[in-house]
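Explain this protein:
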Amino acid sequence: VLQIATQISVLIAKVARVDCPRQWPELIPTLLESVKVQDDLRQHRALLTFYHVTKTLASKRLAADRKLFYDLASGIYSFACSLWNHHTDTFLQQIYTGDEAAAANSLERTLLSLKVLRKLTVHGFVEPHWSVEVMSFLNAAFERLKQFLECSRSIRPESICRDRLEKTIILFTKVLLDFLDQHPFSFTPLIQRSLEFAVSYVFTEAGEGIVFERFIVQCMNLIKMIVKNYAYKPSKNIEDSSPETLEAHKIKTAFFTYPTLMEKLTMWEEDPEGFTVEETGGDSWKYSLRPCTEVLFIDIFHEYNQTLTPVLLEMVHSLQGSTNMEDTSAILIKDAVYNAVGLAAYELFDSVDFDQWFKNQLLAELQVSHSRYKPIRRRVIWLIGQWISVKFKSDLRPMLYEAIRNLLQDQDLVVRIETATTLKLNILLLQRCSINDFEFRTEQFLPYLESMFTLLFQLLQEVTQCDTKMHVLHVLSCVIERVNMQIRPYVECLVQYLPLLWKQSEEHNMLRCAILTTLIHLVQGLGADSKNLYPFLLPVIQLSTDVSQPPHVYLLEDGLELWLVTLENSPCLTPELLRIFQNMSALLELSSENVKNCFKIINAYIFLSSSEFLQMYASDLCRSFCELLKDITTEGQVQVLKVVENILKVNPVLGPQMFQPLLPSIFRGIIDGERYPVVMSTYLGIMGRVLLQNASFFSLLLSQMACELGQELDQILGNMIEMWVDRMDNITQPERRKLSALALLSLLPSLN
């Protein structure tokens, strides 16, 4: 049974991690002998164990352990290579003769022996380029990989070898990527060959018919890692660069010549469809070529922008004017070139007059309503979104808003969703800036607010997928956040729709998070009028912050923020608002990163209506605070004490009585000279409130402390005053210093 055999192999490897080779010297020789046996099952299990032992020993990081693994690797590397070659030759022979069952067995052994070689090659040598065997294996790997790729072209989709063949091909690329990552200078002799190999499969006819999309992605990763590798980048001062760096840089530069770069960019132009392939079905890996291609393009463009910029600009220039709607190829070419200009926006900052291009060409393209032109309308509005934060004059925004409003009425749903994204980028990016052309001007947007909000709401109702609804909700939230109270006349439709959407999204917690975010901005925009939302709003807060309900795992953070915003905008404390505070005790017990928001919520209740609130919840709150103070950081302690101080500030009569259990420890902290200045300052603030605003209660507390400590009343008071005066410099806030001064002065009229 393979699963049991695997567990036994892992167990042997764990023992080997501790005992091999010193206490268990015979393990490796035994395994090497066992992988030679003719019995298929025993041979496979020996290989499986050999792999797990090698993997475990390779992961050890102490210098002595590394030395042992280096010795092991140099001793068995030759054998591992011959084992791999033997199983590879056997597999290729069997697959060409059509013996699929035998080929599948051999391929499994090829895969395991290659896994062993990967660990030995990457982790078994300090300077692997000095090992003839290692470099021979890596050079041979390219040829072997080509043989396996040829096999993959002819293999049937239902073949039992297909999955293992893909794993083996991907493992070859992982060997190269890992070796490059761990030993960039040892990889230098392989740079030329790796680039030729990867580029041929990604950018030439050699890659046609490759059924494993993930292999193409790995080739792109290989090119990208070589292009971006810091070890291959000389210093600005060439004399400071090592000879190894200069050598690698020379090879890389010699490869990426003008014709080579031109060929890549021309392929992007001539075969745009090949570079806009979305993920293929029937594949568990779900790798998408498009984003990988785009990342590779950005990296190459960044590295060689001086060469590529004029070429790309010439392509753009050649595409200006109208496009033949019947020419699908021309439309795809324009889409690919516009995509490139959007991806390289920051690199092209000084080379493109985007404002002129927007006015003279792009606006007109957005107005072409022909059904075949949908891809370009989508691409152009995306392109504008890419350039908004790079180069776009503020004066042009009304023209952009006009175009967005028109596109939000487009018949193509994807065009409308892409348009909503551009609107979000426009609003979100600009709200973070307040300079020059990047400042968001609300007055420019207001004339379009009603129509855009209505169209976005219609889009929200029309889309059906959860992710898309979240996306559109986020755009609506951004609009509400930016225009704030000026949204009030237009939100009625959304207010009526959100309860229905909340109910429909019972199984989709991430969509509910988006609804909570929208409600936060909605409450802020509506201000005191948000009380009209309470029949829907308060049950939502109740559910989101109830730790006994499973959804709280997703909703709690946003739910607490909504609760706080609701209180901040509430004109008065309603019975329903009071009732949801029942959730707070359990929240305080969590002691999570959300506890700060909990304290803010408690403060909001105190300032809204302290008497009513404290009569209902003071005892629960006091109990929670006592528990919290037993096991909390200094910062958390200060947060709790500040809430107590606020209670005493707004309710000096009831406050000290209700939170009396907390006061003795605070009194003791003052007398003992609490060592943390910020905690001491808060202690003095609380005691100052009691002394100044409720002298009779302070006298009772003083008597209680004298009793507990077995000291005279005057002695206790004297100790406290002495420490208080001594620690006045701990108090940095002027308001607190004033409070302490007044509190101490209030003692002077007494007869003591």
Observations:
- Residues 595-630 form the longest helix (36 residues).
- Residues 488-608 form one domain.
